[in-house]
Sequence to fold (370 residues):
Amino acid sequence: MITPQWTAFLRKSIATACVVLIGLSAATQAQAQPVFPSAKWAVATEDKQESGWSSERFKLADKYAASIRSDAYLVIHRGRLVHAYGDITQPMNLASIRKSVLSILYGIHVDRGNINLNESLADLNITDKGGLSDTERTATVRQLLQARSGVYHPAAYETAEAKKERPARGSHAPGQYWYYNNWDFNTLGTIFQQKTGKSVYQAFKAELADPLQLEDFRYPEDTELVYERASDHPAYVMKLSARDLARIGLLVSRRGQWQGKEIVSSKWLQESTTSYSTVGQGWNGYGYMWWVPQRAFPFWRHSANQLAFAVGTGGQFMLIDPERDIVVVHRVDNGRPWFMRHEVTGEQFAGLAARIFAAASDEARRVPPP
Fold:
């Protein structure tokens, strides 16, 4: 027999259960909501439930970073800063990481229909000092993004090693051969301005720096066009701090989404971080101005095209794992006088990355199901 007391008890129990379930649902939804930095990074406490990453193992990573003379590095997991070493606020020359940044800007304007990757240099009336051959002028914007233009004209901001390794003019037709070519990358800056009506720097400020709320970037102080007599197309040099570069890395890790808004399409990011060339004896591939680790980072990577990797001379590195939502940024201050400069090699960065991964929480190590 159901008494009035029993009925009241059931009602109270059901009401309590509903409150608990609503609370759990709200907590689950809050946990599922992706974290983005606003004016400041959210900092996760190491060795506590909030992070799960090991501060003791990070000490080993820091010790190694000191031994290779890293100036700064940081680790972002799920939108939170879980570890920082050195001065992560100092703007430093991105070196060739600038190219990966331009790749994102290209994606924004390809998405808008402002840039057609299949247009050729002839279509765009692009030439250079001394002219280009008819064959060279058949190279497309896509081939320049892939460093497969076949245009081996002298370029601004080339290293001595690049000048030495540059193939002879006319030795490869467009699309046939991969060569890490500053002419391609610089000319993409010229094409970008021609097609969008904005300089690389104007677009960077309006379309990345402002919406991502970069903390340390100063416009125009941290930008510089570098011209050389050899070419009409300047290099677009810029400085960013480690923590500002990490925001760009997080945008890529989040497949172009930022606080509920699409900055660049996931389609573009997938396309641009897919390998179209195998280089370095198979250790890396190359996409649209992004390196794509193949055999590199075997302790971290579990599938092809999983990681996106940006590299700049002297020891500028950014490793992005969208599957685990992890971003690692490494910097060396290349603004010192030449006699005080030092280099962190890719092999040394891989050693640091291995120590960082050893500090990862169980959650960070797991690979989510596809």
Summary: The chain has two domains: 38-90+264-370, 94-240. The CA atoms of residues 16 and 349 lie 54 Å apart. Residues 13-31 have pLDDT under 50 and may be disordered. The radius of gyration is 24 Å.
